[in-house]
Amino acid sequence: MNEKKFINKFSDSYKEIGPYLGLGTQLAATIVVMFFLGRWLDEKFNTYPFLILLLSFLGGFAGIYNFIKAVLQLNKKNENDKKS
Prior knowledge:
Helix content is 92%, strand content 0%. It has helices spanning 2-21, 23-45, 50-83. It is elongated. The two termini are 29 Å apart.
């Protein structure tokens, strides 16, 4: 019986943290994609390192904004689920 409680508790934990697991990867991917886009554009327009820096910072800000927005929405959803 103890093993079933452990498995249920374990699966409940994953249900709670599941939506948060991809957020870090999404943040990193946004920055990396914008960096390589800036690098490609710098090579194309011969503006090295202006566009790498600009798009990397833009990707960082966009990624952090999306990260915070998603966490706030998930927290709000969790609070509403607990109230119901």
